[in-house]
Amino acid sequence: MSQTRRASRRLALLAAGAATGALLLTACGKGETGSAGGDTKFVQGTGQITKVASGKRQTPPDLSGKSVEGKELKLSDYKGKIVVLNVWGSWCSPCRAEAPNLAKVAKDTEGKGVQFLGINTRDLDKANAKAFERNYGVTYPSFYDPSGKLILKFPKNTLSPQAIPSTLILDKDGKIAVRALKELSEKELRSALDPLIEAE
Known about the structure:
By secondary structure, the chain is α/β, with parallel strands linked by helices. The protein is built from five helices and eight strands. It has a six-stranded mixed beta sheet with strand order 1-8-7-4-5-6. Strands 2-3 form a two-stranded antiparallel ribbon. It is globular, with a radius of gyration of 18 Å.
């Protein structure tokens, strides 16, 4: 094979790899992807916060696995509590921006029947995830999900956490009451969470 053809082939492979990487990371930053709700009766736009009436809420898959700290973690263990499930990566700048808001609200609501959990994704080195938690005062546990397989457990055309960052809020019955496909301010998070706390 000539050097020119080899160079062309190498460029084509690099371009294909970059395209795949871009698809994996589209959700981080301003290019979050939304999805039409299909038969779920929900329509989501880019960067939207979707709130679901109590009679129409869906049950997420029962996620289980190891935490960033290496402990066993299971979503269903927190049934009976309001659960705030946040998808994040240490490499994601909107995740870094919202982390202090999540940490503050988590501390403020821990005595009100609320449990925060994270899904740390695409951090191939746990040290980066642990440093993120230390730097932003994140004291609640996170699933360690470097390949994104936990996120893929959510069925298509549902309120899945397909963006990074994204946040689901589950009611006390373990059903999805809120989904945010965006970086959350403290005010937005409290606005989504408070009605669920008050309803109980």
